[in-house]
Amino acid sequence: MMHSVQKITPCLWFNGNAEAAARFYTEIFPNSKIGQILRYGEEGREIHGQEPGSVLTVAFELDGQTFTGLNGGPLFQFSEAISFQVNCETQDEVDHYWNLLSEGGPPEAQQCSWLKDKFGVSWQIVPTLMIKLLTDPDPVKAQRVMKAMMGMKKINIDEIKRAYAG
């Protein structure tokens, strides 16, 4: 059971693989778990078209943030217009999330800390230091960081630091 209900919970629309996605994500993020799984019944089958007993929704939590995965069918697809930002303190953290979330996702969707996972969900794997350097009051330093970032897929913190230093 989830311990509390947050005011706003993202609901992710999947095409039959909401439970697999939730299990995938909960293996990657610490302090994560699967919650309640609701199943389709016979009622409404003429509308939803799903097999009775198949997963309707799965509640899951990623490091304290609750989500709902919905098996709604192929009608809607994910796009980069919505993404989840993962703030990272170290290169090891960046590497961990990048390597696991990008596995099976399209390489062409990887740019400037962004990636798409194998389920089509977009993520930004962002070193917190990069944000600090991009917002530096010295526009020359900040622009060097921006230029370096724009040439990367997965962010390399050491390269960002070198760009900042000039």
TrEMBL record:
InterPro entries per the UniProt record, alphabetical: 3_dmu_93_MTrfase, Glyas_Bleomycin-R_OHBP_Dase, PhnB-like
Domain PhnB-like positions: 6-126
Protein name: VOC family protein
Biological classification of the source: Bacteria, Pseudomonadati, Pseudomonadota, Betaproteobacteria, Burkholderiales
